């Protein structure tokens, strides 16, 4: 029953919602992900600046990449290619293109409706913009519960199982001791709160990402003469025009979209929770940065994994095995046995940062539901660590199937909320675009122009310097219009 329900929800309904509403957001925004593509790199450069004790835009980006860049980029791509053939990669690209607009709006709205938590930091996400944007407290609570169950508990147990068994296969480490060691390391990070989680992500995410991209690019460049032909095969297979993969057309679309969604998480409602913590001048700036992270996740990292598999010579149509084994063996076929060890170590880093990300999503949902309860927070941390130890020794396939269903429900609630708030999102986007058109390199958000919205004045204060900047911007806009 779980399998049938999961197949309908995540294999059909979610695909229609993600692609359909992503396309709708793309058209309504006048293809924002294409218009701002070059601008993404300059905003990313600006995000490196310090925020005076608050979390910077770059730290929020690294924290979101901690979740986006995970096992899905290794195992997920392997599964997509195994079941859907090379054409699945093309449909992953399509999903990412429309998903960039969904991520843009959900993260911009998370910034717009964020709340100051009284400790100099911010909280936000879909639960917050549902409550304060749509005035639907019950719907916001449903989202928060689904987020807590899916990411805070279920996915953390699954990630623990994945990494401990990968290390056992590569090095022979007993899973029970690996699970305990993992729980201890994570506990040391958890007790430092969001700042320590962000600091660790700052360190590990660039290291794991660059190391993985570097090794896969080495494999690709050693066979660069085969890359153009493989790219043609990917496109032709996506439309059933490649004879060897013609029978996989339906699977290519389904697996490409499904694995693409789960790899980059655009539209699922998870990334906005970490996008909201950043201190930025304008909500849209974080939306642009997070759209860039979808591009990086799918077009760079997932594509590197796909080309690694397809160029290795190990993969053949009808391959039977899991995604991790396929990726490990593909790398080993080119560089030798150390390739299997490298994939295992890379997966361990990916999973470690993913658990940090999942933990914070659950903590954010918990605070939304119960407020700043120290007892509730400590209980939550204890349960997560216990689940990590237990999950390291258990096959949680049934739990994962249940989590897939709750995550699809999570995405459904979030996408409906985005559709209902699209006018607000477009309004904030136009404010940003008008300032850039007037020649303002770093647009500034003026909360007075949005006095009709339920915004937190502590999160978006109209300080004297902000008011002066706003007046200067108004002058430039008036000159521009004339």
UniProtKB/TrEMBL annotation:
Transmembrane segments: 12-31, 65-84, 134-154, 174-191, 203-221, 227-249, 294-318, 338-361, 373-393, 399-422
GO MF term set: amino acid:sodium symporter activity
Chain residue ranges for the region called Disordered: 462-482
Record keyword Transmembrane present: yes
InterPro entries: Na/Ala_symport
Domain of life: Bacteria
Record Gene3D superfamilies: Amino acid/polyamine transporter I
Stored PROSITE patterns: NA_ALANINE_SYMP
Subcellular location: Cell inner membrane; Cell membrane
GO terms under cellular component: plasma membrane
Bilayer topology: Multi-pass membrane protein
Keywords tagged on the record: Cell inner membrane, Cell membrane, Membrane, Symport, Transmembrane, Transmembrane helix, Transport
Subcellular location, principal: membrane
PANTHER family in UniProt: AGSS FAMILY TRANSPORTER, SODIUM-ALANINE, AMINO-ACID CARRIER PROTEIN ALST
Protein family according to the UniProt entry: Belongs to the alanine or glycine:cation symporter (AGCS) (TC 2.A.25) family.
Protein name (record): AGCS sodium/alanine/glycine symporter
Species of origin: Pseudomonas turukhanskensis
Source lineage: Bacteria, Pseudomonadati, Pseudomonadota, Gammaproteobacteria, Pseudomonadales
